[in-house]
Write a structure and sequence with these properties.
Largest sheet: 6 strands, antiparallel, barrel
Number of helices: 7
Number of domains: 2
Shape: elongated
CATH architecture of the largest domain: 3-Layer(aba) Sandwich
Strand order of the largest sheet: 6-7-8-11-10-9
Structural class: alpha/beta
Number of strands: 11
């Protein structure tokens, strides 16, 4: 697992490696956030630890750039802060899809345990999302509609299966999906779950008679809504 540390304190590196040693961690340190941003696509870190104290003006453009390339599921962004980080900044962090905020005392065992917990929960949730797929019955009111990004025509779909990470859909009129191919990004889509409707963004993973989608940059409240809907209809994992 690759961790990108953006901080003026290179001394934090051994503490991070020790905290995440159970995942064979490679920590790459940067004291220049612009250089770190330039190297994101080359390094493809699973985790970014960014010091908001050292770089209070840089963390917002950094996370905005990161989320244009890597989703919350692809790269965990953890902001390290001190006591000057107020509620207004925390609200901005949530809006910009920061995964977690922790104190800068990474050499402290309590903080190290919290870091381990964040990483463990993240990877466990990935495993659950990839495995737990729900196949709707005729009694389920689950539908998806999206705008073809090439023709701008509306595409109505039946849902074959759905999880908290993506869905498999069959277009009612296949001809409306012309020119849609793998890796296409669907920016205008709506998901109907019973009486609830969510606006979502998706990436095409596979195209055949049906289309497999992965959610992209999904807001936390929408993810929770989908998870809640599915958990009510799926048996618990043994």
């Amino acid at each position: 697992m690759t961790v990108m540390l953006v901080s003026e304190s290179a001394e934090l590196r051994p503490y991070i490696q020790e905290s995440l040693s159970h995942r064979d961690t490679d920590v790459i340190c940067y004291d220049n956030p612009i250089k770190a941003m330039d190297n994101l696509e080359e390094i493809e870190p699973q985790i970014v630890l960014f010091s908001a104290t050292d770089y209070p003006r840089h963390w917002k453009p950094f996370i905005a750039y990161l989320r244009n390339t890597f989703s919350r599921r692809e790269t965990v962004f953890i902001l390290t802060v001190n006591n000057s980080f107020d509620d207004a900044e925390a609200e901005k962090a949530e809006y910009l899809q920061v995964n977690a905020i922790i104190t800068e005392a990474l050499s402290n065992e309590e903080t190290a345990q919290r870091l381990r917990g964040i990483v463990t929960r993240y990877y466990q949730s990935l495993d659950v999302r990839s495995a737990a797929r729900y196949m709707p019955s005729r009694d389920d009111s689950i539908r998806c509609i999206f705008t073809n990004p090439y023709t701008f025509r509306l595409v109505c779909c039946e849902i074959i299966d759905i999880s908290s990470g993506g869905l498999l859909a069959r277009p009612i009129l296949p001809e409306e999906t012309s020119r849609i191919d793998t890796y296409a990004i669907i920016t205008a889509a709506s998901l109907l779950l019973g009486a609830q409707i969510a606006s979502i963004k998706m990436k095409v993973v596979r195209v055949s008679d049906s289309i497999a989608f992965e959610y992209v940059d999904m807001p936390l409240d929408t993810e929770q809504m989908i998870s809640s809907y599915l958990s009510e209809r799926m048996p618990p994992l043994s």
